Automatic annotation (TrEMBL):
SUPFAM superfamilies: Formate/glycerate dehydrogenase catalytic domain-like, NAD(P)-binding Rossmann-fold domains. This is Hydroxyacid dehydrogenase. InterPro entries: D-isomer_2-hydroxyacid_DH (IPR050223), D-isomer_DH_NAD-bd (IPR006140), NAD(P)-bd_dom_sf (IPR036291). It holds the Pfam family 2-Hacid_dh_C. Transmembrane segments: none annotated. Keywords: NAD, Oxidoreductase. Residues 129-305 form the D-isomer specific 2-hydroxyacid dehydrogenase NAD-binding domain. CDD domains: 2-Hacid_dh_8. Gene3D superfamilies: NAD(P)-binding Rossmann-like Domain.
């Protein structure tokens, strides 16, 4: 009895294209060693500018079958691609590919992979911690204890504290949104999800209740945003939608700052009606005199929810896994589909 032939393994000629800081942070020695075993890596070559006048770079790009990219990779436009006639795949060791993958890449039929799924893990972990702490009123209870410096009557001061049967609203059934839902399953929470592409069957599969955005805002104790940054999502939470949120509710934003009207949110937070956990704001770095730095009902973090430190090694591992699949003649496990890219971050 004959058996199907195993996919033929190759070592594709591969070039790194990212910033030097990214390479140092993501590609630990172990990852570089594994990358070198999987691919025929052009030694010593790191591309930070596709137009650089460097003979070694020109030769490396001319021979490249795969680009292994990361943060700081320049856009892959017509001129850059003309220097890479043998390019067949781009493996991105980070999340969004919108910064460097152009229409020219799709027009040439180049396969693209992303480590966005791996990057979703730390964001989801941050979010779940924020949700659980928000319902436990950690910021407020810490402030009260710090001011009292004595025993606090919890039943009197925090009669409604806790996560039991609280309602959490997830805005966006994205990779991160779905991972948050998965991590919340062990807890006794009601989970609402709003996503224009999520139907009833999809909601049942996730084990959540599908909700309109206004209803979600009005019913949730915590609202967590995981929608992509698109023209249609700018100021998704404007003054009107923020006003729908319950008194004492918490808004968590680990997506993009543009999804929330910052001025409208500041008014609600200064008034003390809402609470917020913000890892993204608009502008991304707030002015030094922004009240959000000092408000007791706001936890403001510097874009730390995504992969940082040791978590970056997960991105490298995921990208090398994809390159290994390519070398074995297998399709990417996390291929980017240009037809749905407009729906994603």
């Amino acid at each position: 009895m004959s058996h199907p032939a195993a996919p033929q393994r190759t070592r594709p000629r591969t070039v790194l294209a990212m910033s030097g800081e990214t390479r140092a942070a993501i590609l630990a020695p172990e990852a570089l060693d594994r990358l070198a075993r999987v691919a025929d890596l052009v030694p010593g070559l790191l591309v930070t500018d596709f137009g650089a006048d460097d003979p070694a770079q020109r030769t490396g790009l001319h021979e490249a079958e795969v680009l292994f990219t990361g943060w700081g990779c320049p856009p892959l436009g017509t001129a850059a691609l003309s220097a890479m006639p043998r390019l067949r795949a781009v493996v991105h060791a980070a999340g969004s590919v919108k910064h460097h993958i152009t229409q020219d890449v799709w027009d040439r039929g180049i396969a693209v992979s992303t480590a966005a799924t791996a990057n979703a893990f730390p964001v989801a972990e941050y979010t779940v911690a924020a949700i659980l702490f928000a319902n436990k009123q950690i910021l407020e209870s810490a402030r009260v204890y710090r001011e009292a410096r004595s025993r606090v009557n919890l039943l009197r001061r925090f009669p409604a504290v806790g996560n039991y049967r609280r309602t959490v609203g997830i805005v966006g059934a994205s990779r991160i949104g779905r991972r948050v839902v998965e991590l919340l399953r062990p807890y006794d929470l009601r989970v609402l999800v709003h996503d224009p592409y999520l139907d009833e069957d999809g909601a049942r599969t996730l084990g959540v209740e599908r909700a309109g955005l206004d209803a979600l805002a009005a019913r949730s104790d915590v609202v967590s945003i995981h929608a992509p940054e698109l023209p249609a999502t700018r100021h998704l939470f404007d003054a009107g939608r923020l006003a729908l949120m319950r008194d004492g509710a918490t808004l968590v934003n680990t997506a993009r700052g543009s999804l929330v009207d910052t001025d409208a949110l500041v008014k609600e937070l200064v008034a003390g009606r809402l609470n917020a956990v913000l890892d993204h704001t608009e502008p991304e770095v707030l002015p030094a005199d922004s009240p959000l730095y000092d408000l007791p009902n706001v936890l403001l973090t510097p874009h730390i929810a995504g992969s940082q430190g040791g978590e970056l090694h997960r991105l490298a591992d995921a990208a090398v896994d994809e390159l290994e699949r390519y070398a074995q003649g297998l399709p990417f496990a996390h291929a980017v589909d240009p037809r749905t890219l407009h729906q994603q971050a």
